[in-house]
Amino acid sequence: MITPEETTHGIEETEETRVARLLIVDDEEIMREFLREVLTDEGYVIDLASSGREAVDKMRGHTYDIVITDVVMPGLDGLGVVSAAKELPYEVAVIVMTGYASMETAVESMKLGATDYITKPFNIDQIRIIVKNALEARALKRRAAEGEFYKELSRKDGLTELYNHRFFHQLLDTEVSRAERYNRVVSLLMIDIDDFKSYNDSHGHPSGDLVLRRLARLLKRSSRNCDFVARYGGEEFAVIAPEVSAESARRMAERIRSLIDESDFEGEETMSGGRLTISIGLATYPIQADSKSALLENADRALYRAKGNGKNQVVVWGEEKLN
After folding, report:
1. How is the chain split into domains, by residue range?
2. Residue of 316, 307, 312, 192 lying closest to 248 (CA atoms)
3. Do residues 24 and 49 lie in contact, with contact meaning Cβ atoms separated by under 8 Å?
4. Burial of 245 (0-12, 13-18, 19+ CB in 10 A)
5. What is the per-residue DSSP string for 71-115?
6. What is the CB-side half-sphere exposure of residue 95 using CA atoms within 13 A?
7. Domain 165-316 belongs to what topology?
8. Higher-confidence residue: 179 or 105?
9. Residue 8: predicted pLDDT
10. Hey, how many other C-beta atoms are within 10 angstroms of the C-beta on 172?
11. Sheet containing 21-25, strands listed edge to edge, beginning at the edge strand earlier in sequence
């Protein structure tokens, strides 16, 4: 029999090279040994359990790709094994074994989450095919999940976990196109931490990173679920607010500015006025911009004006705001 140690030979396993590990559960020894022989010949690592309770203990102590369990067993039966598998900290495919007289139980096990079933008396080719299909389905599901994970990872800024600069531009393209197509509006808030360089100079970049993370959480908390919050670069952030008018965007921006002004940040007493603050510039498509590039440029100009007007304030593009 192949053992886990013999499969690797000191080489790190991958999804392609790892040998699948199966647990066979049946209270009849002759059935367990028959399945062990058939599936060992297929190159799988096989463990055995003579009861549902023993199977659950083994499932908790080891990681299995597939559990093949008889439905009818004394004590904890196959349905109990299926239910227990759903509570494990890892995902395992469960295949149940049943006679034709117990097909209703097999169907019930499928409703509980079993992957497939094998009928008795056994057909060796059927066993091989069902196990092979279950492993392939499991591998496809894992690869799909990993693909979604890495896709999401590529969209995020590593420090703040907000959307990154590149994906921000994709989102803004999409939302401006949507607004144009359906005759809607979309507002853009450009946000910058006031005098952040002086904070980094006083406390160091690790402390500055903590501020950026905290600010990111506050921005997410003060935005709607349908808004897109991104780290635009350095200490600059952006919020894309679909279907928010210029006036509503102003109120939203003021709420964000006040929240940051009233929040406590470690070491902010060294900042001008003893508080860490932000400035916000905003513009709304199509009222204050007729394209994505104009929207971005006008919101950025409004931010520049907010900084020039004394900071810690909101400026809407096209509206004068003087101290």
Report:
1. 4-151, 165-316
2. 316
3. yes
4. middle
5. S--SSS-HHHHHHHHHTSSS--EEEEEEEGGGHHHHHHHHHHT--
6. 26
7. Alpha-Beta Plaits (3.30.70)
8. 179
9. 39
10. 21
11. 45-49, 21-25, 66-70, 93-99, 116-120
> Who contacts 236 (Cβ-Cβ below 8 Å, separation ≥6)?
190, 191, 192, 193
- Residues 2-10 have a mean pLDDT of 40
Question: Regarding beta strands 228-233 and 314-316, do their DSSP bridges make them parallel or antiparallel, or are they unpaired?
Answer: unpaired
Catalytic residue set: 235
What's the pLDDT score for residue 262? 93
Tokens of 243: 């279907």
Identify whether the C-beta of residue 216 lies closer than 8 Å to the C-beta of residue 161: yes
318 sits in the region (left: phi over 0; alpha: psi -120 to 50; else beta) called left
Paired with 237 in beta bridges are 191, 231
Helix, strand, coil share (%) of the chain residues, nearest 5: 50, 20, 30
| pLDDT tens, residue by residue, 92-128 | 999 998 876 566 777 788 888 888 888 888 888 889 9
> What's the distance, CA 134 to chain centroid?
25
Q: What's the CATH number for 4-151? A: 3.40.50.2300
Residue 11 has pLDDT above 90, yes or no: no
- Mean pLDDT to the nearest integer, 247-257: 95
Span 79-94, pLDDT tens digits: 999 999 989 988 899 9
For residue 217, CA distances in Å to 20, 38, 161, 180, 280 come to: 42, 55, 9, 31, 17
pLDDT for the residue 250: 94
Report the Cα 190 to chain-centroid distance in Å. 26
Residue 140's pLDDT is what? 80
DSSP states along 120-166: ESP-HHHHHHHHHHHHHHHHHHHHHHHHHHHHHHHHB-TTT-SB-HH
